[in-house]
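Hi everyone, sorry if this is the wrong subforum. Our group has a chain we'd like a structural model of before ordering constructs, and none of us has done structure prediction before. Sequence below.
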Amino acid sequence: NLADVPDPPARIRVLSPFDPLLRDRNRTERLFGFFYRIEVFVPEAKREYGYYVFPLLEGDRLIGRIDMKADRKRGSLDVKRLWLEQGVKPASGRIDKLMAELDRIARFTGVAEVNLLEGWNADLS
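Answer:
Right subforum, don't worry. Here is the predicted structure as tokens:
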């Protein structure tokens, strides 16, 4: 019974590009209206987002993507850029949830801090 299925957590999660939700890119676009492609093999000048960009899930909605990388030598999770989907607002509560997720990922990857690089939020409106 669908009434017995709990609501998804409202927290923000960074998804792997290989998460089962994203495995069938066409299905993800059809069901969620979220176009996602890994741009590792796309020449840099033709990339829409970045080399290795992670999708963001909030509740049951794909809300954006983030370009980040763990720099283990410096001990930081470097956030290069954040993009939110059309209609998704960068409200303070949403950014707080994102920062909590980035802190979790920093701990998981064994780095000490989250480093927001200059221009990381340039695409937010």
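For your construct planning: The first helix runs from residue 20 to 23. The chain has a mean pLDDT of 93.
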